[in-house]
Amino acid sequence: MNMKIVFSLIALLIFNYAFTQVITEKEIKTEAKEVTVFLEGAQIHRKQNVNLSKGETILKFINLSPFIDAKSIQVKVSGDITVLSVNHQQNFLDKLVKPQELINLESKLSAIESKIKLENAHLSILKEELIFLRENRVIGGRNQEVNVNTLKEASTFYGSKLSSLILKEIEIDKLLLELYREKQEIDNQIRTMTNKKEISSGEILVKVEAKKDLNASFEITYIVSNASWFPSYDIRAKNVNEPIELVYKANVRQDTKEDWKSVTLKFSSSQPNVSGVSPELKPYYLNYNIQPPTYHGQVNRVTGVVLTSNRDPLPGASVLVSGTTIGVSTDVNGYYSLTIPANATSLTYSFIGFKQRILPISGATINVLLEEDMLALEEVVVSGVASGREGLSKSLQGRAAGVSVSDKNIGINETSSSLQTEQIENQTTVDFEISIPFTVNSDNKSYSVDMAVYQLPAFYEYLCVPKIDRGAFLIANIVDWEKYSLLEGEANVFFEETYVGKTILDVRNSSDTLQISLGRDKSISVNREKTKDLTSRRFIGNRKEEVRNWKTIIRNNKGQKINMVVYEQVPVSTNSEIEVIVQKISSAKHNPENGEIKWEFTLEPAQTKEFEIQYTVRFPRNRNLIVE
Q1: Per-residue pLDDT tens over the stretch 275-300
Q2: Count of domains for the chain
Q3: Domain range for 546
Q4: Second label for 515, Cα 20 to 30 Å away, from 16, 98, 543, 552?
């Protein structure tokens, strides 16, 4: 009997202890206050005041992005509070709220699909009727005679019924064609807004202990995927006597499943059909059985379409020159067009929920299929911030394995009323802060944000490589460009108030002077031809001698004086048996290491200049040598 009393007391104590250990749970809704967008991914800052009672409380921050990197979560709290634990989880019951426009489109799509199903059923019944009618055209039995009236009635019935069924079939086919077209349009519109998959919402659970009743301020910071930006530029030059106006723009897109409404936006650098990119010469090394360098295979622009494995267009997919920030997003039909810098070798294709692909630049057209990828969330490793060193020690006690706790402070800048863009230069990155509140919706659309406008003093000159391209390219040379913190990117070029095409602003290999190609100028005519009467082949003893002569004629058809640079080349021997003798270069600069010939000069309006190169190649007569 005594043992029963003891067990009853123990059970009562356990029940009371469990009851007293019930922890209050509160759901907290927050708004993003500050967003830093990286070249891939974004860091979100949220801030919220919460009323807390004395004791332990679990705060559940809800309706967050499902694409949170759990390792990046940091929590900062003010007041006499200890952060005991921080966890991240997915809520598969409460789906993220869809925009009303998307709900309406999906409802309309469902109605159209029902109509298509119904019309296909009618069409199937109609085809059965046609088959039945054609299989029962025989009138009467084998030994039964058919009179004229019966035959006439049967013919009338058969013709009328057959005509009715065929016309009905044509009508249904026409309706189905219209329904399928309408369905495709709605599918395309849905793809431009978001991925059609049902995606769970993300939640962050913060367990805290308060010493007393109070109102505490919580700051949560985390990194999400499915957001990115890349730079682009507008380059405007009124004439060759005025500075260049350069508009520095950020092209940002995100499909994190949470809208950024009126946030302080930062951008961080931490990660026409005729090209405006001026050509580059390759060294012409001369040896047996070696072809002269060719240039027809050089790709300056790549176009194509990005599709799913089901051959559906993939709007909003990112296409980047691998290892650079040069990129574009695909349009509603999955189409893209990208200017390619010199020496680029591959392109990187990526999209939310699909496996990334890196493909070599094998031609001017590259079509890509992306395969779907399953969303895998990694183990949660979180930084929690306690109030004070003592609170930090307590929060370390009993923590889950793999959860790190730090007392590092997280600063959040307040929204500024200034209309200017502030540039923050760090050790290895450059950040641009848009001081006015900005909204970027989670719709996978590209938003263009002007970050800065610069007036750049420039020295203008024309560049021509007539061996590759007889076009004269206007080049703007800019000094002290490093202080503008430019990233490589595609640029729209406007010259003399006219759009002239696209070019690449490539700062990766620039020295003290940044060269910007402003495209072709048709007012400069260039002609290059081989002088036949000075080109010869002859034998001298046991050696063969070949002479080549090229003439280049340049005329300035503009109404003003221009500066110009023209590049040519002569071959360079890499074999002691082969001798190259340069005879004429028209006072050009000659680089004997790579054979480059360079003329620098000025041309007055309507003035013409002629330049000539002549070289002789000598080699053993019993050997074959390809001389251009």
Answers
A1: 566 677 878 888 887 888 776 556 77
A2: 2
A3: 526-620
A4: 552
